[in-house]
Amino acid sequence: MADILNIVDENDQVIGQESREEIHRRGLVHREIHVYFLTPNGEMIFQHRAKDKDTFPDLLDVAVGGHVEIGESYIAAAVKETEEETGLKLAPAELKLIDKVREDTFDPATGKLNRVFNACYVYVYAGALSALRLEAGKALGFVAYPLDRLSKLADEEKSRFIPAVLNYVSRIDWSLWLNKNTI
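^ that's the sequence the OP posted. Answer follows.
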């Protein structure tokens, strides 16, 4: 059975339901979450997407991302997706909301338009990268980049990332979030 998700209007109000596949095929507006993982030593952790993902295959993405299911809140989706994609069981209070953005991204590799309201959270992860558990069949691994290096990537290295992720990362002063959330 196909995953059924809410379709929302430009005010993030539910106006219908459709399959995930149809939402991505037709570019319907829906809800997603992103959880950005920072390390106490100033790195950001990215997930390397599987080569067969239906959007942005084989690219680096936020550490955790996913759809908000019918009847689910943004924060509940973030907690659930974090556990599914990393193995970490977090309390909602451990995730800090950065903002909620309305964005459209086009994937030239698949020709799909992703139109979303995206609630973006940050989590300060102090564990080892190797301790994060991959979701079977969804990702190839995790990689960490120093925050100060992300703004200086060469074009070839930038091409390894989902463009909208790098664009969003460049707009945030991550040191403020890191300083607020570490001892």
